[in-house]
Amino acid sequence: MSANYCQYQLPTKGVLELNGYKTDWMKLAHANFSSNRLWSLSLKYLIDLSKINSRLAIDILNSFYQTLWLKYDELQSTLPGSWDHCTAMRIEVLCGLIGSGNDLLASRAFSELENEIAYALEPTHIKRNNHGFMLIESVILASVAFEVYDRNNESLELRRYAEHELAAIFKSVFGLDGYCNENSPFYSHLYVHRMKQMLARIKNFESLSEIGSRLSEQIQVATVTLEAVLHPDGSIPPMGDSSPMETRIYKSSDGVFASTRTGFWAWKNNGKYVSFKCGYESLVHKHADDTSITVRNGSDAFIVDSGFCSFDYSDPRVLMLRTQRAHSGLYFPSFDHLHPAKIYKAPYKKESRLYDEGGNAVSGSYSLFGGYFAYRRVKIQSESYFIVEDWAGSASGDGVVHRFVVPDDVRIEISSSGMTLFGGESSLKCSFSRRMNYEISSGQESSPHKGWISTNPGSVVPARCIELTSQVFTVDPVQFQFQFSSAK
User: Fold this and answer.
1) Residue 235 maps to a domain
2) How distant, in Å, are the alpha carbons of 5, 65, 291 from that of 37?
């Protein structure tokens, strides 16, 4: 690193080149990969850089904000869905620089903080989801920075604003049942994680004690609910925009959890796990996964959702993970190609809902414009036995597919009357109530790209996509009887 130049390894892809006053921010803002744009324009690297070369950090700060205020609309347009995230990250960076101990850097950062905070104080910018929560986090930190500069009246206004908006976000996101409505178990974990981080950062500030109490209360509620939906080993299920993730901070709890508000249901008993997804309160991070189930027994994952890879849709497999093709549900193939952003809006207007039947039973249904309707019911009969029943119909007579996504390491034996899935330590047998045609796809390299799952962020691996169809389409129910047993 020279006096005016340095390279920063991005946590996503590529290397960020920073050349003091000569840094080309517009070029960085139009990078091909959206995550690179986010990191470049967030200034997240300035905290570390300031500890090594404070003069270069000030030059980059001046260069960036000169460009930002001249080209604000153009820069914002390069991150249409993440500008609020980007702004929140910059406010956090500026607060960190204010506390750096370098008076010149702190003074320069505070002058920009006053301008940046205006964005977070615009009510229409505070969404009732994790984006809004991150902005409110930055407002809380800014209130401390204003205290440091003896701007106590403004600091008090920021705190009151943060308290009000935080309560509104928690009410919207967690509702009465305590489960995050962002359609992905990972986001429940993300809220808990960030709330704990924020609580640790503000614990020594008496002025923020009320916010601290609110955070502590919500952490407790969200943790209890999250532990009710985690896999039996405490890992985060790869559903919606979640990648599978091991955790060592939660303890999975057995029982039944149901949230008709968010459209999610889970049953756990002695290492066995069955989940059901149908419906939503918010479309944030929603996949086309209505009526999808997942099934596990101990370390054996038998039926899964394909999870989340990234938002880089230049890879058609990544786009596929969000469609019906990546989920173990009851679907009309006519809509397989549709991204959720299209299928839930005009002209298709997909509507879905979950019905908690109490005890160990749940059902869900969805409809689509044009007379399409599907209904699935899941009933736990005993610790080792459960039933799935499917109904479907359409005005056009289009057929449906009963789709099951299975990890590649699971051995499959299948016939027209049933199938058995063999894991490492147990098996899952399924008998069909009628003769079925079947097709298995795996790791398709061309359209429709069926047979992929994501086991780690940013990557996909082959899996099997089992599709069952009846010889003659009918609205009569199809029943699948599932039995857990030993591997042999």
Assistant:
1) no
2) 19, 16, 36
| pLDDT band at residue 70 using 50, 70 and 90 as cut-offs | very high
For 22, the token pair is: 């000569």
- 283 and 393 in one domain? yes
Taking each helix axis from N to C end, the angle separating 130-148 and 185-202, rounded to the nearest 10 degrees, works out to 10
Pair 67, 200 in one domain: yes
Among candidate residues 295, 296, 308, the one with its CA nearest the CA of residue 455 = 308
pLDDT value at 1 more than 70 = no
- Output the pLDDT for position 164: 96
Strands 426-432, 478-486: pairing kind: antiparallel
Compare 480 and 487 and report the one with higher pLDDT. Answer: 480
The string of DSSP letters for 105-162 reads: HHHHHHHHHHHHHHHHT-GGG--SSHHHHHHHHHHHHHHHHHHHTT-HHHHHHHHHHH
The CA–CA distances, whole Å, from 209 to 152, 199, 212, 310, 377 equal 16, 10, 5, 37, 47
Q: What would the pLDDT profile of 357-378 be if each residue is shown by its tens digit?
A: 998 999 999 999 999 999 999 9
* pTM of the shown model: 0.92
Same domain? 468 vs 386: yes
Domain co-membership, 157 together with 282? no
pLDDT digits (tens, 9 = 90+) for 120-152: 999 899 999 999 999 999 999 999 999 989 999
Of 176, 109, 177, 102, nearest to 146 (Cα)? 109
Question: Mean pLDDT across the stretch 319-347?
Answer: 96
Give the count of beta carbons closer than 10 Å to the beta carbon of residue 89: 19
What's the CA gap between 154 and 143, in Å, rounded? 8
CA dihedral over 99, 102, 107, 112, signed as positive or negative: negative
Contact 308, 300 (CB under 8 A): no
Mean pLDDT, residues 290-302: 97
> How many independent structural domains does the chain possess?
2
Q: Is there a single domain that holds both residue 55 and residue 185?
A: yes
pLDDT of residue 488: 59
The answer to the question of residue 276 being in a domain is yes
Do 287 and 178 have their domain in common? Answer: no
Q: Residue 32: what pLDDT?
A: 72
Question: What confidence tier does 6 reach under pLDDT thresholds 50, 70, 90?
Answer: confident
Which range marks the domain in which residue 322 is found? 259-486
In a domain, 346, yes or no: yes
Domain shared by 162 and 200, yes or no: yes
- CATH code for the domain of 352: 2.70.98.70
Q: What is the dihedral of CA 15, 16, 19, 21, to 10 degrees?
A: 170
Helix, strand, coil shares of the chain, percent, nearest 5, are 40, 25, 35
| The two structure tokens encoding residue 48 | 């570390």
Do 11 and 159 lie in one domain? The reply is: yes
